[in-house]
Amino acid sequence: MPYRDTTRKLAAYRREIAGLREKMRALQQRVEPEEVADYEFAGLAGPVRLSQLFGRKDMLFVIHNMGVGCPNCTLWADGFNGVLPHLENRAAFVLSSPDDPATQAAFAAARGWRFRMVSHHGTTFAADMGYGREPDWLPGVSVFKRAGDKILRVSDTGFEPGDDFCAVWHLFDLISQGAAGWRAQLTYR
User: Fold this and answer.
1) I need a labelling partner for 91 at 20 to 30 A (CA). Which of 81, 84, 85, 134 fits?
2) The whole model's pTM is what?
3) Residue 109: in which H helix or E strand, if any?
4) Residue whose C-alpha is closest to residue 162's, from 134, 186, 141, 181
5) In whole angstroms, how large is the CA radius of gyration of the chain?
6) 47 preceded by a cis bond (ω within 30 of 0)
7) What is the distance between the alpha carbons of residues 35 and 144, in angstroms, rounded to a whole number?
8) Mind listing the pLDDT tens digit for each residue in 74-96?
9) CA neighbours within 13 Å on the CB side: how many for 175?
């Protein structure tokens, strides 16, 4: 197909995707939130409760990360690091993984991550939210709202290669062969 014809067709598909996103946002606004417990996590400075992670915000993103051994989780986190100031302008943001706080801190320093991290190791948090059980964790995000003394989960979704939560995949889509079998790695040579 000629370049300009292909570009027009792709633009039409992108408009369709934008329309689906509008429908998803409308449905999300009608969701009945579920109340969750005030879980306790391990932080570098000691125990921290879910309620404390909000800081002064009323909304909180908690990233469900599988830990330092997962290249895809690292890829997502690298991307979140880049947009962190924008996200934190609207809501609190924390990454939760099964790694202990010292391991998290060392890995975050090596990657230049600026977001807060907590360990859910030894808790039922990830399992209760639907993001696996030890050792089979799953990546994703849960969004919480503080409503007085209650904590409500208002949305969540899993992550997978090619999703909307990592721009790398969509940029690769612009290459004629796409990702062509490319896989995220912790380091590249």
Assistant:
1) 134
2) 0.94
3) helix 101-111
4) 181
5) 18
6) no
7) 9
8) 999 999 999 999 999 999 999 99
9) 11
